[in-house]
Amino acid sequence: MKIAEFKREVSTLIQAKYSLVAIETSEETRALNIIKEAASAANVQKIFSWSSTKGMMDEITLKPEGHDGKKPAYNLKEALVEIENKEILGMKSIFILKDVHKLLEDPFTQRKLRDLSISLKFTNKRIFFISPTFKVPSDLHSVITVLDMPLPDASELREILCEALGAQKNQEDTVRDKIKTGEIPEGKGKAHIATLQKNRLRMVAQEKEYGDRFIAAGLGLGADAFSDVIAKNFVYGELSIKMVSDEKKGIIGKANLGLEVFTTDETSASIGGLDILKKHIVTVGNSMTAAAAAYGIKPARALMLLGVPGSGKSLTAKAVSNDLQLPLIRFDVGALFGSLVGESESRTRQAFKTIDAFGRCVLWLDEIDKLLRGDGGGDNGTSQRVFASILTWMEESEGTFVVATCNEQSALKPELMARFPRIFFVDVPNAKEREEILKIHLVKVGRDPKNYDMARLVSVANGFVGREIRNIIQESLSTAFNEQITTGKPVEMNTDHIANGFKSSQPITIQKAKELDAMRAWALRNATNASLDDGSKEAAQMASTKQTGGRFDSGIGIDDIING
C-alpha cells in the first residue's frame, strides 16, 4: 500500500465509523500526524492519546486530560473504562492508545474491547491503536481492523528535506535576533551567520544538482530516521549520498528483519561465461525502460539461478544490481523467525514494507532452498505462513526484481517456481568459461594471464567451479610467496603452482556427483542452461543424456531462449 492510499484508508475508516482500528508502525509521531490530518478532514473536534507512562492527554491542547500530570500512569483497563464513560457532549472524538500490543491477552481487556466495538458505533467516539507490532488475539480478529503503515515515499522524503533546509534559514534569523538583543556578540554572531549561510547555499545547490539521488538513497528509512540523517549531513555542511546510504545500511541491519543493503563493484564483466544468462539480464534492463512501458511491456520481475555451490550464482545476483543500476538488498528469510508467537509474521510484513519503500531495487534471496524447505511441522506452521507471505508479496509487489539462488532443486515447490518465469541452470564451467574465470582471477591478483600456460590450466581445472578456481589461484599465490620467504630468493607464481593446486584438490562436482547428475536431469526439463555449448568433447558428454519436452524444449536456440 502506498502512503497516499494509506491516508485515504485512514480517512475512510474514520468517516465510516469503524470503532477499533490498529496501525502497525514504529513511526508513532508520523502515524499521529496522519490520524490528526484525517480527523480534521472528517470534522473530528477532540483527539486524545493514552500511554501507560503519561496517561490520557489532549492532543490538541497537549495538556493532561482528567489528571494533573503528576501521577498520570494507569493501566489499559482503566483507560478503556474512561473512554467508555467519558462525556464529550456530542463532539466527534478519537482516542489513540499507544503500545498496547503486549496488553491484549488479558481476558477483561478482550471482553471490554468487544463490548466497545459495538457500543462505540452508536457514539461519536473511535479508538485507534499505534504499536510497532500488533498481533490481534483470535477473539478480536473480527472487531479490530489492522493497517500496516508504509514507509515514506520519495515525495514525503523530499518534503522533509525541504523543511530541513528551510529551518536552516530560520536558524540564521535566530542568530540575527540574538545579536540584536545582545545575547551573542556581534562579531561572533556574524561569523556564525556567514558559516550557516555558506553551508545552506551549498546544500541548496547540491539539492538542485543531485537531490533525486539523495532522496533515492533515503528510501527505506522512516521519517524520523531520515530527519536524523539530514541533521548529520548539516553538521558537515553538505548533502552526502554516501552518508545516507551508510546510515541506512546500519539502521536496516539493526532492525533484525533479515535485510542487508549490499554495495558491490561486481558486474557481468566479473563473471566468466554464462552468456545466455548475461544476455537475458540485458533484456531485463530493457524491460524496465520508459520505451518498454510505452510499448506495452511490463518490467521483468524475477529469475532463479540453480546450480552447485560456488558456481557463480551469488556473484551473478550482485552483478545484476550493478548492470541494472539498482540498489541490492539481500534477504535472509531465516533471520525472520522469532521465538514469540506471531513475531515471524510481523517481521515478514516489516521486511516487505522496507523493501517496497526502496522503489526499484534488486532483492537477492540467497540459497532459497534452505530458507523455504520447512514444511510447517514443529513450528506451529510459521514457516508455511511466512512462505505463503513471500509468495503473495512476489505476486503483488511492483518495482522489485527478485534474484533467487538455489543449490538443490528437490526443495523447490511448484507454487514457488510459478513465481519465476525464468529458472537458469548454472552448470560446471565449460572449457571456454574456465579460461575466462582463470583470467579474471589472475588479473584480480595482479597477474597477466599471458604469462601462464592457459591451455594447461584450463585442462587441469576441468570439473572445478568458479569459487574453487578463485581459491586455488589465491592459495597458489600464497604457496609461491612462502617459497620466496623460505629460499630468500624472488619467486613468482607460475603455471606449475596453479596446476599443482588443482591436482591436489577434489572439486565439489566429484564430491556431489550424484546430486549434480540429478540436478542436470531436472534442469533439462525445467530450466534454461545459463551457458552456451562451447562444442567441446566434455560438453557433449554432459549433454549425452539430453531429453526433450518439459518446461523448456532442449532443442531451442539462444534467440528463442533470450526472447521468450
Named at the architecture level, the CATH assignment of the largest domain is 3-Layer(aba) Sandwich
Helical proportion?
40-55%
Q: Which stretches are poorly predicted, pLDDT < 50 over at least 5 residues? A: 539-564
CATH superfamily of the largest domain: P-loop containing nucleotide triphosphate hydrolases
With helices defined by DSSP (H or I, 4 residues minimum), what is the helix count?
23
Oligomer class: single chain
Assign the structural class, choosing from mainly alpha, mainly beta, alpha/beta, alpha+beta, or little secondary structure: alpha/beta
Topology-level CATH name of the largest domain: Rossmann fold
Structure, explained:
With 564 residues, the protein is α/β, with parallel strands linked by helices. It has four domains: 3-148, 3-Layer(aba) Sandwich (Rossmann fold), CATH 3.40.50.300; 154-254, no CATH class; 268-426, P-loop containing nucleotide triphosphate hydrolases (Rossmann fold), CATH 3.40.50; 431-510, Orthogonal Bundle (Helicase, Ruva Protein, domain 3), CATH 1.10.8.60. It is 51% helix and 12% strand. It contains 23 helices and 14 strands. The chain has helices spanning 3-15, 28-41, 76-85, 107-119, 154-180, 186-218, 223-236, 241-254, 275-287, 290-294, 313-324, 343-357, 368-371, 382-396, 414-417, 431-444, 454-460, 466-487, 495-503, 508-511, 513-526, 537-542, 558-563; strands at 20-24, 46-51, 55-58, 63-64, 93-98, 125-131, 145-148, 259-262, 302-307, 328-331, 361-365, 400-406, 423-426, 528-529. The strands form two sheets. A seven-stranded mixed sheet has the order 4-3-2-5-6-1-7, sandwiched between helices. Helix 12 (343-357) links the parallel strand 10 (328-331) and strand 11 (361-365). Helix 1 (3-15) packs across helix 2 (28-41) and helix 12 (343-357) packs parallel to helix 14. Mean pLDDT is 87; it is low at 539-564.
